Amino acid sequence: MHNIEEYTYDLPGELIAQEPAPERTDSRLLFLDRDEGGFSDHRFSDLPSLLEPGTLLVVNDTQVVPARIFGRKESGGQVEVLVLDHAKNGTPGPTVRRCLLKASKRPKPGSRLLFDEDLSGTVESWEGDGIVRIAFSGPESVDALLSKIGVMPLPPYIRRTRRDPRAGMDRNRYQTVFSRWKGAVAAPTAGLHFSEALIARLKKVDVSLASLTLHVGHGTFRPVRTRDIRAHTVEAEAYRIDAKTAASVNRAREQGRKVIAVGTTVVRTLETVAAKNGSVATDEGWTDLTILPGHRFRVVDGMITNFHLPASSLFLLVSAFAGRDRIKRAYAHAVQERYRFYSYGDAMLICQGRKNKVEG
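-> structure tokens emitted (360 positions)
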């Protein structure tokens, strides 16, 4: 069970969603029974009828920064830059930022880069994994200029041209309705399916919400390159859990109510801070927790998650939660039924003992 080749599956390319569903809750939802392995097909708008009264949903309120900018070298060559470091809300950020840079030829330290809105940058140094440190200067702060000229850092499997007319739609739809704290370079995609109207319906059936913050980093798309999955580690990401959310999670557990994570980012955060008895405390820091099959989950009873890339750390996580064989059967069903995959695709609800199961 430790060979990465055991965590792959076949996916036709046309099932990789290039755009979101017309409305957030129009996406499909595959329910997977964590206990028995049965599954059934639904719409995301059915979620209130699939959750037990008293359930606590924990969401990620990170906000994706439109951090991809296009420019040129002084020599004229085109460059694409993804800014990785971001200021906290309301605070001025540093002028020197870690970035990912794409160019036909790597610019040397000291090279000057030119962008729109009179923003410029000077390459200071190259680090590992294609990361470069750039000193930015311009008439406004880097963060203010990113809000003007930056585009959403969509994952590489969503194809967009430089001036794609869908950029405005991406600014809205690649952001959850929970987004509050700037800092992510990728969306916590399970949250993309929620609307304000659906949240109101959930509250009417006694399903409550709590939020935490984990700023998704670019490493979320980094493939597992080790044959033995135990040798893989995910990139550290910043998180924060406040006292209100910690109390909500602890109270739900004490009362025997289900705690369901909206997304793998929430799972990793809660499992990072969980004590041996499953209690959660206020905390802030960085987590590189890599959840593999065999992990003992202390807090989370269920999760809502999108369909993930084969042989990825996220596929390993859901396999750890529900069992590799069950996940692979559910994914095979999703492929057969033409579900849409990845960030703009459909979703899964994995939890215990619901009705209307279809054996897989």
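The CA atoms of residues 308 and 342 lie 6 Å apart.
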